[in-house]
Specification:
By secondary structure, this protein is an alpha+beta fold.
């Protein structure tokens, strides 16, 4: 159980995810946050003498990221780091001076001060558009690497369990990457944009998605996750129950605060603010030697929490909150048991000998079959569901991450039948396990029985086998060499595409031809000797196919050669346009300089003429 140890109301609103606590004088903590008018407000509750409790730093630009951290090992003072759409500024609040100012052409999307495993000093890690930049205390670049999209969250964790701190980065392309130096040590694909990351104990880290999902990964494997109808606005970790292990703390758009066990996701504390949570920060804000979790709301409300001291009797308000939480859990459990009891009561058959079976009872050996069907002629993919024993299907519910909007699909049969085809229009290629719930009843019956099953969807199920002659000609290729048997490569194709139809393999090599059910484009895979050629005009698809092959075959490094003439022509056209624009820019700058010089000369002449007339 936690207790609120302080509460205050600031006069300025606090922007979401733009707040941090830092000891700018080396001793006393202050709260820095972005507010309206491109300003950073610094609230120092321990200010004394002539020092003001509230100071303002005018950035005069839209603030996109803000954090604090100690960059210099010789100094105990924290540095304030402010990112905008064009620059990064490191500011020493105590001496009121800039430490460095660095132009970031693509803008700063995420900021963190992290001690990484391959750098001896703390690094300012800057997440931008498709790139990550590491900077030292002098503003000098330490490392640079690329990502698949705009970086939205940063953290550090020993994801791979090798005793080193890797950089964990979340992006808008639904990917979480664990980076060591400039290589990707682990990559995880999620169901939506990453909006928050939090370091936990050991190899664990927490994550938050734009669709209201939070969860925990351990060594790249998901431990648990929950989803809410509200959106996550803040995420952090702290040991709030005194057991020596970090808990995952989340703040929500409805003002709710939740503390969950990192191992199970069990809620151990919840509270609510008067408005949406803007940030969750940690620090000794009261100056009593114990770090508090400080919750900031967008309306300026700030509240600090500490674990309840077991030697101090809890207040009636805390006891009431604890009892309410337990009653809520018991009520939910009671509701589940009542539903279960009702089901048993409805399905109970009288034990009197010779009594006929109720009309709603289906035969006990009724079964449901599911299979994925891809048709290259109709260019469609569907899930075929069928039942037997004179039963019919009323509806089918599908649950899966990444491939369905809202993570679920419900297909209802206007006229119940023994078989149904649920159309699958998947926009992404992902290997997922679909949870299927089929509503089955007797013909004319009103009461349905729910059959549950799981089905693994192959990653490339939206590609159907096709004849080579029927496919359009593709001019683009990706080529790589592997020392694998053709049979092993054929197993990869059959596993990832979910079919052995159209896959020809033998001692001489492998040939597989597929058609995209989305746009009818061609995808062919061939192997001769050690050379594998992937032929497609989709650059992104080619990269995904090569990555999937490397993962299935267990290849840590795979060198490949890409040949995409159409994309190269488009790139050359863009570069020509850039050169033309740059030439025009230089010409305009030269003309502006000439015009400026002419204006200066005319101004000097006019001044002398006026002086002569005055004389």
């Amino acid at each position: 159980m936690l207790q609120s140890v302080f509460q205050l109301h600031l006069s300025d609103p606090i922007f979401v995810q733009l707040a941090a606590i830092g000891k700018f004088d080396g001793n006393h903590p202050s709260l820095a946050y972005a507010t309206t008018g491109g300003k950073v407000c610094i609230h120092s509750p321990h200010a004394s003498g002539d020092q003001a409790q509230v100071q303002y730093l005018n950035i005069n630009k839209e603030i996109t990221a803000l954090t604090t951290g100690q960059l210099d090992s010789d100094s105990s003072r924290d540095v304030l780091l402010v990112g905008t759409n064009t620059s990064l500024q490191a500011y020493d609040v105590y001496t009121n001076q800039d430490l460095f100012f660095k132009d970031i052409s693509d803008g700063v999307c995420a900021l963190a001060v992290i001690q990484l495993g391959w750098v001896s000093t703390p690094s300012v890690v800057v997440g931008g558009v498709c790139c990550i930049l590491g900077i030292d205390s002098q503003g000098t670049e330490q490392f640079w690497t690329v990502t698949g999209d705009r970086v939205t969250a940063l953290a550090a964790s020993d994801v791979c369990g090798k005793g080193r701190m890797e950089l964990v980065a979340g992006s808008d392309n639904f990917c979480i990457q664990a980076l060591y130096k400039e290589s990707v040590a682990e990559e995880i694909t999620e169901a939506d944009k990453i909006v928050g990351l939090a370091s936990l104990d050991g190899t664990k880290f927490g994550y938050a998605l734009a669709n209201g999902t939070i969860g925990v990964y351990d060594k790249g494997n998901r431990t648990w996750r929950i989803k809410s109808k509200h959106s996550v606005t803040a995420l952090c970790s702290h040991d709030l129950d005194g057991d020596g292990e970090l808990e995952l703390i989340s703040g929500w758009s409805n003002g709710k605060i939740e503390v969950r066990k990192a191992e199970s996701g069990q809620v151990i504390f919840k509270d609510s603010m008067s408005s949406s949570v803007a940030a969750l920060v940690k620090g000794d804000y009261r100056g009593d030697g114990a770090d508090q979790v400080v919750v900031c709301a967008v309306n300026g409300e700030v509240r600090g929490y500490l674990p309840l001291d077991p030697s101090v009797a809890p207040t009636p308000q805390l006891m009431a909150a604890s009892q309410a939480l337990k009653l809520q859990e018991l009520a939910l459990r009671k509701q589940e048991l009542l539903f279960e009891l009702r089901g048993y009561s409805v399905n109970r058959v009288a034990g009197v000998s010779g009594e006929t079976q109720p009309s709603y009872i289906i035969p006990p050996d009724t079964s449901v079959q599911t299979v994925v069907m891809a048709d290259s002629i109709q260019r469609s993919c569907s899930l075929a569901v069928s039942t037997d024993k004179d039963t019919v299907i009323r509806g089918v519910m599908l649950f899966a991450e990444q491939i369905f909007e809202g993570e679920s699909v419900f297909h209802y049969q206007q006229t119940p039948s023994a078989s149904v085809e649920v159309p699958l229009a998947l926009k992404r290629d992902a290997a997922v396990t679909v949870m299927i719930k089929v509503m089955v009843c007797k013909q004319g019956g009103a009461l349905c029985h729910v059959f549950e099953s799981e089905l693994r969807l192959p990653k490339f199920c939206m590609y159907a086998p096709a004849d080579l002659e029927a496919l359009p000609v593709s001019k683009s290729t990706v080529t790589f060499n592997i020392s694998e048997r053709p049979a092993r490569v054929a197993m990869w194709v059959e596993h990832s595409f979910g079919t052995d139809n159209g896959v020809q393999h033998g001692p001489e090599g492998v040939d597989a031809h597929f058609m995209s059910l989305r746009d009818g484009s061609a995808l062919t895979i061939s192997m001769r000797g050690t050379k594998v050629v992937v032929r497609t005009d989709d650059l992104e698809l080619a990269g995904v196919v090569v990555q999937d092959a490397a993962a299935y075959l267990g290849l840590a490094d795979l060198a490949s050669t890409a040949h995409f003439p159409t994309h190269m022509q488009q790139f050359q056209a863009v570069m020509a346009k850039v050169i033309e624009c740059n030439t025009n820019r230089m010409k305009m700058m030269a003309e502006a300089a000439d015009s400026s010089m002419a204006i200066k000369i005319l101004v000097v002449k006019a001044y002398h003429r006026c002086s002569l007339h005055a004389g």
